[in-house]
TrEMBL record:
Residues 1-19 have a biased composition (Low complexity). Residues 53-429 form the FAD dependent oxidoreductase domain. It holds the Pfam family DAO. InterPro entries: FAD-dep_OxRdtase (IPR006076), FAD/NAD-bd_sf (IPR036188). It comes from the Eukaryota. This is FAD dependent oxidoreductase. One of its GO terms (cellular component) is cytoplasm. The lineage of its organism: Eukaryota, Fungi, Dikarya, Ascomycota, Pezizomycotina.
Length: 461
């Protein structure tokens, strides 16, 4: 297949101001992309269709779940299913969704931090929205028969420093007293039992809550294959969109090296790369590099680590945050990511960079011997780092995603992007609301999405 990336391959950072933010070729291979689906580089038609009702740019979790819910919304509203095309720059699910930690959760420490940053009534909408996510995901997985190692699990937020433990305990007790919804699913484990329950050396405090663990690539690629086989989506992989302009009659024109596509409505499901084709999001959604790894013991360790983790070496309220995430796989291997602080001082390594074709060298030594260092019972596991990869996060200036109608686009352009480090706890339920906006023409407020997620002119100023 032709390579439409030529201009972008060697210039994936804003230090070269002539380059456009687009996915680069030859990305590092994440563990999640080692068992590829037949749809990975699929094109439904040899040529790009010349027109469609709705064009979705990006075949990650956001793009595919939006398509899925557009079909559902049309059915629910007794409307004809619109023609949908998905244009993906690289392979299916080759962006952040194919490179992440594979768990979806409310992180207790984040919920506590959020209280400092937004009005409580608005946060309650977010917590309620996130609470629905595990059940919504489970329902789609079961309804569509997606084989993606989906599991409802407990997740642990462990605190390793004494001073952080004291602060987080106080904050949690306050939240509990105020009856915030997320505390109903969350238990606190005090120092006396923290090491034993978490299996982490030196754990000083922990919170446990509900999480989903799954293989994100398998979920997304299988869901997309269902949509394609039902002829609900025309999929075009290896087709970067380089610009979106408007025709005199008010149609969107998507520009690609393979030709033009006219669409009544466009959904930008482009996460970290959004500013590349939506300049008003420049500086508001910034691509930042992150690292994750796959670690395998010589033989599976029993008992199995059955929780997912966030391991807080330092919480943000007491200094620069140091947090890893960890997701034990059913075969006994582990996906671990984080280590941002090993290179964070040098912003040229990670900030406003969208190159996932190389790894950040400083991160690798941190993950070597990781399980032996931190986990009880793993000291003699012989666990080894067997793969390391880079992923690009869509970091937003205010820490919130941008969802809804692109300001000033007269109902013709929508965005769902900017998920920072935790989108899988938000995306599915958000796309349900977004799809209703697109199909029924109703407002953001009418579909009941959390107000903090709305993309607005004010947030783009
Ligand atoms: C290392 C890492 C670890 C993470 N860990 C977790 C975790 O454990 N839990 C969690 O909830 N979240 C995690 N996240 C965040 C999570 O992965 C994202 O929030 C989520 O995957 C975003 O999904 P998306 O579909 O919006 O974006 P993506 O999956 O990035 O999809 C966007 C797609 O758009 C395509 N695209 C972009 N521009 C164009 C263009 N111009 N033309 C055509 N196609 C284009 C890209 O190729 C890509 O396939 C992590 C992220 C990273 C990088």
């Amino acid at each position: 297949m032709g390579n439409a990336f030529a201009e972008n391959s060697n210039a994936a950072s804003r230090s070269n101001t002539t380059s456009q933010i687009l996915p680069v070729p030859n990305a590092t291979t994440p563990y999640w992309r080692t068992e590829l689906h037949a749809i990975d580089e699929h094109r439904s038609t040899p040529d790009l269709p010349s027109s469609c009702d709705i064009a979705i740019i990006g075949a990650g979790m956001s793009g595919v779940a939006t398509a899925y819910h557009i079909v559902q919304a049309a059915r629910d509203a007794n409307k004809q299913i619109p023609s949908i095309a998905i244009l993906e720059a690289r392979q299916v699910c080759s962006g952040a969704t194919g490179r992440n930690g594979g768990h979806s959760k409310i992180k207790a420490t984040t919920a506590m931090e959020q209280i400092r940053s937004a009005p409580i009534e608005m946060l309650k909408e977010v917590w309620e929205h996130v609470r629905e996510q595990p059940y919504a995901l489970k329902k789609v997985v079961e309804a569509e028969g997606l084989e993606c190692e989906f599991e409802l699990r407990r997740t642990i937020d462990a605190i390793l420093r004494e001073e952080d433990a004291g602060e987080k305990k106080r904050e949690f007790l306050e939240c509990l007293e105020k009856g915030y919804r997320w505390t109903r699913d969350t238990s606190m484990v005090e120092e006396k039992n923290a090491e034993q329950i978490t299996s982490l050396h030196n754990a000083k405090l922990a919170f446990t809550g509900l999480a989903c663990s799954f293989w994100p690539y398998k979920l997304v690629s299988q869901l997309l294959s269902r949509l394609v086989s039902r002829n609900h989506v025309n999929l075009q992989t290896n087709t970067p969109v380089t610009a979106v302009t408007e025709s005199p009659e008010g149609l969107n024109i998507l520009h690609t090296a393979r030709g033009l596509l006219k669409a009544k409505k466009v959904v930008f499901a482009t996460n970290a790369y959004s500013a590349g084709i939506l300049p008003s999001y420049e500086g508001k959604i910034v691509p930042t590099r992150a690292t994750a790894t796959h670690i395998t013991p010589k033989k599976p360790i029993s008992p199995h680590l059955s929780h997912t983790y966030n391991i807080n070496h330092a919480v943000p309220s007491t200094g620069p945050e140091r947090c890893d995430y960890l997701n034990p796989r059913p075969d006994g291997s582990i996906v671990v990511g984080g280590a941002q602080w090993t290179y964070s001082k040098d912003r040229s390594k990670w900030y406003n960079i969208w190159d996932d074709s190389s790894i950040i060298d400083e991160a690798r030594p941190y993950f070597e011997g990781y399980m032996q260092r931190y986990f009880k019972g793993w000291e003699d596991s012989g666990a080894e780092l067997d793969s390391i990869w880079t992923g690009i996060i869509g970091t937003t200036a205010d820490g919130r995603p941008h969802i809804g109608e692109v300001p000033g686009s007269k109902g013709r352009r929508y965005i769902i992007a900017g998920f920072n480090g935790g989108g899988m706890a938000i995306i599915l339920t958000s796309t349900k609301g977004l799809a209703r906006m697109i199909v029924e023409g109703v407002s953001f407020e009418e579909v009941g999405l959390p107000r903090l997620f709305k993309t607005t002119e004010e947030r783009l100023r």
